[in-house]
Amino acid sequence: MFDLNIGSYFEIFVLWLKDNFDFLFDFIKNVLEGSINGIEYLLNVIPVIILILLFGLLAWKVSSKGVAIFTIIGLLLIDSMGLWAETVSTLALVLSASFITLIIGIPLGIIASKSDGFDRILRPILDFMQTMPAFVYLIPAVLFFSLGKVPGAFATIIFSMPPVVRLTNLAIRQVPKEVVEAGRSFGSTSKQMLFKVQLPIALPTILAGVNQTIMLALSMVVISAMIGSGGLGKIVLRGIQEYKIDLGFEGGLAVVILAMILDRITQGLGDINKDK
Amino acid sequence: MSLIEVKNLYKIFGNKPKKVVLLLEKGLSKDEILNKTGNTVGISNASFEVDQGEFFVVMGLSGSGKSTLIRCLNRLVEPTTGEIIIDGDDILKADKDKLKDIRRKKISMVFQHFGLFPHRTVIANVEYGLEIQGVEPQKRTEKAKEAIKLVGLEGYEDSMPNELSGGMQQRVGLARALANDPDILLMDEAFSALDPLIRKEMQDELLELQSKMKKTIIFITHDLDEALKLGDRIAVMKDGKVVQIGSAEDILTNPANDYVKEFVQDVDRSRVVTAEAIMRKPDALISSKDGPRVAARKMKENEFSSIYVTDKNRKLQGIVRIEDASKAIERGEKSLENIIIKDVPKTSPEQQIIDLLPTAKTSDYPIAVIDEQNTLLGIIVRASIILGIIGEEV
Lengths: 276, 394
Prior knowledge:
heterodimer; A: mainly alpha; B: 16 helices
């Protein structure tokens, strides 16, 4: 049989990237670091209780009173467990990674919906990104960006991008044919078509993709604590390493609460658009 | 001159369109081509003209290519070969900007399932065409309101499409198409998704609107009754070919082939076929100068129980019954004066059969068909009415 060392070829490729594109990785590192630290600073500057109330208000606006109450109680619980700083750090990482994921992922989805060829090429890449065990991304991430938050964010971006690309693509393709024809029959340019017809109609499904992306980002952020991204993941990791059941449970609970709040709020955004 | 001219238009779906056009020209059928090349014939050598202000209906069953044909006119579907001249411009040679302009200013379209933008209010839907042209908001709202008024949807400006019934949604579709003030209206099965009562109402309203607007309308339908009701002229399509073009009556009375004949056999002909089509030349007439003896002899010869009387210019004078003629002969009268019956059943040649039925039921005599000058054109007996309704030759 053949003896193929695909792994070693990949290693050579990664090292080659590291040697030749270091300037690019430095640039990415600066951008990511800047945005994570910026968001974290902003969240820390606002007094805890006001921030909690703001989250409650946001939940009320986009969702319901029940979600608002849950949000406030959940965040108060996190604060009372003494995990506020870690939660804010995790949230900053999730938000900035998700933001970058979305500004790359949504346009990719739009292009894929317009071009069958691009879609065919993109599909296996997305499969790869989605199913490759998440830990594997951590190795080259560390190589490119060394330890810390930035490789965590990088791995998170790769891992959480597929849903939003897929759902944006699907959402635009699912806009009823006759509606698209109507848009064309009135002489829309392709830009008008996209922004006045396709994207608004596709929005609820795209927002479902955004929701999935944020959920995946949150799960990856915890894993990336292994390469020093800190936050709640670090608490969970310490619980494992030091065999502290209480610490592990508290960290895990905080992650669950945060996940539920983010999920309800982003789902609420989708529902608002569906109702309209 | 015609506003729209379509010449030798072909649309082939598949990978060898040019080759298929050659095969079609050689006379292969749609099925043979599908088996041989795997390509589907959408339209095969369609040619027709539509005049300014005409209501032109294209009728055919599903798969006959009618929807493809209408989409070729504004190039939502790109034709394979042929020519489409609209108002002097060859649509198929138009570049992107020109095409955009034609779609914005000249041709609007109404869709079977309405094709409304679900995220926009009624008025925002109607404004869409003007909005993308960059018309300023105030002016486009004004025009949109006019169009909404025209289709009778005042008061629903701020509703969302999904809050409206099917009939109302299609009114929005129509208003949206009219807001641009296009010359040509393409209507793709516009009323097919509506239930029958609403459909009838919409047809009547469209006809009324059209009598005011005088747009050029190309209307697609699979419903023969709808085609007959709406169309000034009708094109019948089968397997991508236009098999017959003509007025409703042409198509009913002179079907071009067995396909059309079969298609039209279930139609309610009494509403379409006119007196003119079923009347026949009277076998015998008498002149007002003739006497009762001539009248009696002619009736006996032809086995009539009554006979029509005209003057020398064929103007209708009345009718004479055989029993009255016999009595007049016994009384020794020389003229018809005393026995001629002036009150006879009459109709104009344009009258539809359905309107003749009450007269035919109560009258003892054949119905006289006369023109505006009272000239006798023909007569209609009850048997002709029945034959007219079932579509047999009179």
